[in-house]
Prior knowledge:
107 residues, alpha/beta, Conserved hypothetical protein from pyrococcus furiosus pfu- 392566-001, ParB domain, seven-stranded mixed β-sheet, globular
Amino acid sequence: MFRGVLDARPYPDPDMAHRDWASIPPRQVALADLVTTKAELRLDVLLAEDSTFFGDLFCHVVEWQGVLYLDDGLHRAVAAALHQRSTMHVRIARLADDGTWQRPSGS
């Protein structure tokens, strides 16, 4: 289902505000290309119908050193897999090796 499962972020904290994430257009990625940064999920959150009510509709992914890490949205990714979807739309923030956010062109 996922490329890998971790229990922590291997990359520096991206220190991005909600508006920074919102400035990144979503794109489709395969679940099999993602490495999770959380090893556990809560079923009550997974099954909640309003799980994105206060958050972004799209999962947040950090691309660091050529790897796509699922930073936020594990529950949505697992729900997609349970619905037999192999891809999902995400926002991808690219971090330089030193952890600085590489803003999308035109920002």
